[in-house]
């Protein structure tokens, strides 16, 4: 039994899709088709913006044709219901002709194929004519749309899309301050401009008060950064001002100062790599540099950001190191030995530089006395000067190393650790001398329990870490009756 498809489409909510379908159905019934043999496809989407592959209605039509060989005819109200893009229209025409499927258009009325399946001359002419008309109408619609947008833009009205955060639209689609969100905007600018608060501190406070509840803390901080840099909030057509120009200028000045003071550092290795364990499972936590986190690879394992645990363990290690490990006399002897070794290396290099100077004088003398040619003299001189340059660079490197080592070890002479003089490797070395293992428990997302087992004695220090604020509190210290390494070995089997 032959089947037909009724394809209807509207592009706006104001158009009546049902009425269009009913008119086409009356024609289908006149041609003798029963309802059981009619497939109705109704579509609400633009024929201007979407390609053939993106059109839901066309895809449905092709799917029915590919799965039902009895479909022999497509009914449409007018040609533009298929598409307004000529390339799409001709592609559909060729698709139907190849499969010997008739296309019947009501407005104006024409049939694409003859009875024998060949393309009708009249149908072909009508198809070409109304394809051009559909394209012209599409271009006119686009022009009217763009003209309307330009007019709205000139009048300070919205041209579509969601208003920027802090603004709303009145009945004329003009921008007005949003009663609630504009207060948040004002607060962010005042806290950063006059309140000496960082973007992160502002983000934490807003999160704790219930704002931006669906966003991560870092996302909120980035949103605040964008807000503080947007000029529209001081009043910029078509947006009314939410803050004063003076406040905006103050904020920009603070941002510039913060940018100048910020030190761009290369990501260092994790301080506690290989030391942090999941307190529940006993497994050593892995590290993820992209998200700066210690995490368990096992199911339901714990995860903790490095900025919530590294500072805790470092401050603990520094205190223990100063209290139990530092030996002023031994380290002073070590420093003296390093000085002597480096001084010898510098002396050797300086001797080599002097020797090159002597060779240069001899080369000059040989040239003056005619023992070597000018060309040979220049070659020797170039080579010797290059060697001298390299030796001088080596000397400077040794001197820099000497000074650097002296600075790195200066904290020892003072019987206290000056963190500014330490390299990352120095910190790791100190931690490994003090800490045996670190156990982490995370009851919820707001805080963690960190247990630090000492290598230098049997004490265990238990800290409560407040994750959002990156602060910690010592809960207790006690004597451990268990070897944490034995626990880990047993749990990991």
Number of domains: 4
Beta-strand level of the residues, as a percent range?
15-25%
Main sheet: strand order? 2-1-3-4-5
Radius of gyration: 40 Å
Q: Helical stretch count? A: 13
CATH superfamily of the largest domain: Resolvase, N-terminal catalytic domain
Percent of residues in helices:
40-55%
- In N-to-C order, the SSE pattern is EHEHEHEEHEEHHHHEEEEHHHHEEEEH
CATH topology of the largest domain: Rossmann fold
Instruction: Supply the helix-strand structural class.
Output: alpha/beta
Distance from N terminus to C terminus (CA atoms, Å) equals 70 Å
- Give the biggest beta sheet: 5 strands, mixed
Total count of strands: 15
Q: Determine the mean pLDDT.
A: 82
How would you sum up the global shape? elongated
Task: Show the helix and strand layout.
Layout lengths: L2 E8 L6 H14 L7 E7 L11 H12 L3 E6 L9 H13 L3 E4 L4 E2 L9 H34 L12 E3 L5 E3 L3 H13 L5 H10 L8 H13 L15 H17 L14 E3 L7 E3 L4 E3 L7 E3 H20 L2 H41 L5 H40 L10 H11 E7 L5 E8 L4 E8 L4 E9 L4 H9 L1
Parallel strand pairs: 1-2, 1-3, 3-4, 8-12
Antiparallel strand pairs: 4-5, 6-7, 9-10, 10-11, 12-13, 13-14, 14-15
